[in-house]
Amino acid sequence: MQNTFICLSRDDPTHGFLCDASQFAGNVCGEAGPPEADGEPALYDNLRLRLVLGSHLAQYLRLQLEEQKGYTATVGVSTNKLLSKLVGNVNKPRTQTTLAPPYSTENALPSNVTKFVDSHEIGRIPGIGFKMAQKLREHYLQRPVPAQDMQDMVYVKEKVTVHQVRTMPEMSAALLDKLLGGPGWPADIGYKAWALMHGVDDTEVEYVREIPKQISQEDSYTRLDTYDDVIRELKILSRSLVRRMRIDLVEDEEGGGGSTSKRWLAHPRTIRLSTRPRGAPDTVSGFRSRALQRISRSAPLPNFVFGLFDSVEEVADRLVDDTLVPLFRKLHQEQSSWNLSLLNIAVTNMAEAASDSKTASGRDIGSMFKHQEENLREWKVEDRDVPPDIAPPLVSQDLDGWLSDEVPDDEDHVLLTCPTCGAQILPFAVAAHQRFHETGE
Does the pTM of the predicted model rise above 0.85? Predict the structure, then answer.
């Protein structure tokens, strides 16, 4: 196991990397190894081996991403998305952490999953949002829990852990349904919250979309309350957005003579501006109440955004002046007093360009012509002289009076000659042709 080769290709057995599969790669959360059996560590039980291999694959991908693209990454390794997200936050940045087994309570051993999830504050669990966490805190403390917004940081005075909520008397999925359910909430919200508090997450890991549903840029602020500051921040976000669009939605296309050009994979049809105003400060404490609600306005995305000859700065500045400023004025009156904690710009409503993809809105004619020879090769008919010595022989045989000129091993093309009228008939039509003569029609 110290000299394990992980193969990364079904077709090339040499494509992969070496690793030491007797131990985890990177950091480990929980006990580093399983209990000993018969005096020797049980290093290769199924779950532990899968996690070990997963940690080495994660390390390989992180290093390749950094080496080839220059991006650093932090990774969590576990058996579902919930645990992977949580354990990935343990050590940051530019590293990885694996949640080690045991994951169950078999053999009277405590579960690392239970201990790990129990240690988190209830609001830190992915899938349990701010409002849900507030309801659970208030149920545990039996009183309201004020949440305040101070310099755009959520400040909750009382911290309640998952362990405290999970081990409350009569706590169950049914009780959580009563606490968290209501109009606008999923019918099984109690079951989902109960599962999340036990480290259970059935969410599937999906393949990444070739074309994203939307591209957005946002930033939060401690204080944004002047028109000039808003314009400056809108231009910064717009430049990042246009740059992202050109990276994610534009590809190189080969042209004639070996030249290359660029084409859009998709055209967003809508641009959306969202803001989050802060609430008024409390007259006694001076704290502002936590602002959760965003307000938005949308407009058609102008066509000049798709021009690739102008610089990113020129396109972004024009987008701010022509589109985003009018949207902002519809959201906030310039004369009114306002203080924003967030700005978000997004392009949505993607219309995929013509391509060979199944989800495309049309076919790329240029690409079709380029691959025409390859795609039609098997259907192409060529005239050629076949030497007599290698031509397939014709075989004549008598079958109840029917004669056949047959090419061997090619039964689908056998033609039988009718002894009465001399017509050539395919085998499946012989019976019908015989009835034709018998009836005299």
Answer: no
